[in-house]
Amino acid sequence: xxxxxxxFLKSKRSFRxxxxxxxxxxRIDYRNMSLISRFISEQGKILxxxxxxxxxxxxxxxxxxxxxxxxxxxxxxxxxxxQFERTESTxxxxxxxxxxx
Length: 101
Known about the structure:
By secondary structure, this protein is an all-alpha fold. It has helices at about 1-10, 35, 50, 55-70. It has a domain at about 35-70: CATH 4.10.640.10.
């Protein structure tokens, strides 16, 4: 009986409590680029609430601030580092015959 009770007890591990990413003095605003850029991935996507460790109210205001900054061109909609280049110019008329009059 004593062994079966031990299996259900949780281990008492000490864990380091993480600090909240947004301090009480930080103002969530579209102009606060240093704060907003912490919640955007490398591709320019808004990170989820679980990854950010934010409350629901904070995540909503961060999302609105990021969208406002994108509309005002303070942030890019996409952050593509690869620039697509065309090595050959492929036009639609290359296979067509030209008419001689």
